[in-house]
Amino acid sequence: MTSLPQIPETKSEETDIWCPMCGEEYLIKFQSVIVNNVRFRCPICCPIGGLSRPGVWLDGESSQIMLDHLLIWLGAYYWQAITTGQVSCRFCEGGARASICGPQDIPSQYTIRNVKESYGVMIVCSSCHRTETNTLSHCLFDLPQVQHFWHKHSRMRWYPVREVDYQGQPALLGRFQSVIDKAGIDVICQRETLEILQIQENQLNAQKPER
Length: 211
Known about the structure:
Elements: E1 11-18, E2 26-32, E3 37-41, E4 47-52, H1 63-84, E5 86-88, E6 95-101, E7 111-112, E8 115-116, E9 120-125, E10 131-135, H2 136-141, H3 144-152, E11 156-166, E12 169-178, E13 184-190, E14 196-202
Antiparallel strand pairs: 1-2, 2-3, 3-4, 5-6, 6-9, 7-8, 9-10, 11-12, 12-13, 13-14
């Protein structure tokens, strides 16, 4: 959920992809061929992600395929940062250190539907000195299990993270739920390390949408 610098000669277009965080608007795609940059964001909610990587984007690919490639890359990057505490800076490729951040560390502008985000990972590069923060909602959205749920329930929304106890340890519960029915997916992670403790998809109370 990092604010990226302005990209020269960027074209924008509305996609047919529902925002996975609010489920209320279609995502906007911003693309610059000059610097091979692609970004997606919701017009009312928050950025979903962006990346400049030669060879990642191919001419003629659909917006959904581009977004899928983007999320796979970002998921691998941020979860490496979370699990190992270090990663190559995605802006200059220098060495960067990562740390888990709590509510006091998340910038106030990081909100979803006017609710401030409360946990995430902070990455600080020792070469270019750039600092970026990615919030827990985005890190969990990048997980393959959540991506699989999203492809089955294309219109879903994120619910604010809750602090819970899980098997005697402090934990966080994040939930994505379909806007159309009752299907949802819960992710529980350890509060201090963000280690994934449980992922459970729940469709027991699913209901067919009204026609």
